[in-house]
Amino acid sequence: MKIVYCHCSLYNPGGMERVLLNKVKWLSEAGHEVVVVTTDQQLRPPFYNFPESVRMIDLDINYSLDNDKPLFKRIPSYLHKRRLHRRRLTELLMREQADITVSLYPSESSFIPKIKDGSKKVLELHFNRFFRIQYGRKGLIGLIDRYRSRQDEKLARKFDSFVVLTEEDMNYWRNQPNMSAIPNAALPMPLKSDCAAKRVIAVGRLDFQKGFDRLIDIWELVKKDKVSEGWSLDIFGQGEWCEKLNAMIVKKGLTDSAKINAPTGNIAREYAGSSILAMTSNYEGFPMVMIEAMSAGLPVVTFDYKCGPRDIITPDTDGIIIKEGDLESFADAILLLMSDNERRQQMGRAATTVVNRYSEERVMNQWISLFERLTYQ
Q: N or C: which end of the chain has fewer CB within 10 A?
């Protein structure tokens, strides 16, 4: 089977990129031909090491070069690049004659179902139904957000298959007939934590979605309690909020216990050197960091954001789910795990069973079943 994946770029250390790497590696090793098509790679090497058997093709569209332009210049440039994108992707798909073409959204999603190259088109959403309106933006931008969110439902129906990451999210999309839920896989971590280190870890892009500003506010509450003496918070990531978050740490007098770290190529080592994962996201599609950390033996304290925690965590067994936005209860949960070594370690051991529920074999067999069902229709 020949499968084409479409994504914007692969040079960032993001969750989508890591998930894509794991999928194409598995598919390639299983004997399938895989092509990854990008629009904004700009000759930069992928952050992760993709297999040589996976062909990488960049269309040289470069939407991101317009991000800093004023709106009146950005719109005509975007429309031009979108036409160029459609033409180049059409030419590529007609040439490749793939069985399956997967769009990782959003980029080509608006026009790819119209490309008549013979491949079945799959829309794979790594966010959730409400991702466009999570910011709560006002005015014209807010109206546009709400309009595009409504249009997403119509767009999803145009694909041969629409895949989300959780059963929870399926309900938000009103269970469209072409929908299915396939989670991300939890790969076993090469190192395991014994939950003895006095360190809380958080991982993700430094932006609104991950909510690390909330985590720093929570950490300020935590450090007021003597139980937290000797404990540190390490956040790993990069993004536009780096300066803002560092300024918060300084302003709150937390520089001795909280630190922003650059992304690492060996996150397994960092999980193994920690004892609690804190997740303060405003929203997720399916939190890869959560299942990675759990597979490394870390109990999780997380807000009950959309989507993921309710699908993944067994409350008070392998993690603690906190009512969305309740910073004080989140701090109390962290302090509870800090103060009870036995409970923390027991929850950490229970967390490792996530690899059984979300094993790579189980998840990828779901994808193969979907692809075979589409191609034999």
A: C
